[in-house]
Amino acid sequence: MTFIEKGQKIDIDRIKETTRLSEAALIIKEKRDKELAAILRGEDERLLLVIGPCSSDNEDAVLEYAHRLSDLQQKVADKIFMVMRVYTAKPRTNGDGYKGLVHQPNVKAAPSLINGLKAVRNLHYRVITETGLTTADEMLYPSNLILVDDLVSYHAVGARSVEDQEHRFVASGLDAPVGMKNPTSGNMNILFNAIYAAQNKQTFLYHGQEVETSGNSLAHAILRGSINEYGKNIPNFYYENLLNDIQQYEEMGLEYPFIMIDTNHDNSGKCYLEQIRIVRQTLINRDWNEKIKKIVRGFMIESYLEDGRQNEPEVFGKSITDPCLGWDNTVRLVKEIYTTLSKNEK
């Protein structure tokens, strides 16, 4: 094998040194982490939203969004619990395109992984300490988790990683919830095998050491739709899909059945306004069936300051990857969810 060494050696401890949570911030984070775990176990009936930009491409815009989201969270806290998407690494099937903050901390400059690692940690740290929210990120590179293991409260394994054994095994050793997406093929056996692996003990090599995990009972399913052989989007949030997935949870004896609906990607065909319809339809399905209501208790929503997407970072707070709901539409959707949940309780 040929690897060309580039740049300085990374000192993770040094990067972490200036962005460790204070005792006060840690108390807030630990409280929210316990609340999140209770929701996933079914002990807390609030709805979970993992919500935020498709990719965290601009620190100022992400922090502006975080402050607004924190204010909104306070207004709906009795019915809805929000974890903010601070996604800093983006999968690229052919290697082209924006790969996230970790690769390119300045989208108008050349990639810089050293600076990218610093920017990733700093952004999670600032969101937590400046807004009181906790954060979610995609576990694209399991070896990089050591950089943010003390900051990130929710990890997602994407559609292109869910079949990878290292992702499954690392997920089994995390002390935080892991949402696992179905693959782009739509093969649900792959997803449920991944959840099974993550919920059970595993032994493997990690960072050059033999490790043993205890299993992660909070690993769960995220339904993101799929693509058929003709390249057409196949949503998988429909009523029958949900009943089949609940049955699979039961037959495999998995712990704490929990289903989150990814309202974008192949469920929406990346038509960002469709996220609103998908949420509405799922809330109706929950109201129609007690099993669905008990298990389908989360939405993953792509949302930013401005509607849609752009190819170049010209408009502040507008996605440069997948199209997102803008802030006004986000507020309306969250308030609609809150009103629907309140009505259904009467």
TrEMBL record:
Extract the GO molecular function terms from the UniProt entry: 3-deoxy-7-phosphoheptulonate synthase activity
For the keyword Amino-acid biosynthesis, the answer is yes
**EC identifiers of the protein:** 2.5.1.54
Q: Which residues form the DAHP synthetase I/KDSA domain?
A: 34-333
Which Pfam family is one of this chain's hits? Answer: DAHP_synth_1
Write down the InterPro entries for this protein, in alphabetical order: Aldolase_TIM, DAHP1/KDSA, DAHP_synth_1
Provide this UniProt record's keywords sorted from A to Z: Amino-acid biosynthesis, Aromatic amino acid biosynthesis, Transferase
Tell me which domain of life the UniProt entry assigns to the organism this sequence originates from.
Answer: Bacteria
**What GO biological process terms are annotated to this protein in UniProt?**
amino acid biosynthetic process; aromatic amino acid family biosynthetic process; chorismate biosynthetic process
Which cellular components does GO assign to this protein? cytoplasm
Pathway per its UniProt entry is:
Metabolic intermediate biosynthesis; chorismate biosynthesis; chorismate from D-erythrose 4-phosphate and phosphoenolpyruvate: step 1/7
Has UniProt tagged this entry with the keyword Protease? no
Q: Which Gene3D superfamilies match?
A: Aldolase class I
Q: Which chemical reaction does it catalyze? A: D-erythrose 4-phosphate + phosphoenolpyruvate + H2O = 7-phospho-2-dehydro-3-deoxy-D-arabino-heptonate + phosphate
What is the documented function of this protein? Answer: Stereospecific condensation of phosphoenolpyruvate (PEP) and D-erythrose-4-phosphate (E4P) giving rise to 3-deoxy-D-arabino-heptulosonate-7-phosphate (DAHP).
* Family recorded in the similarity comment: Belongs to the class-I DAHP synthase family.
What is the protein's given name?
A: Phospho-2-dehydro-3-deoxyheptonate aldolase
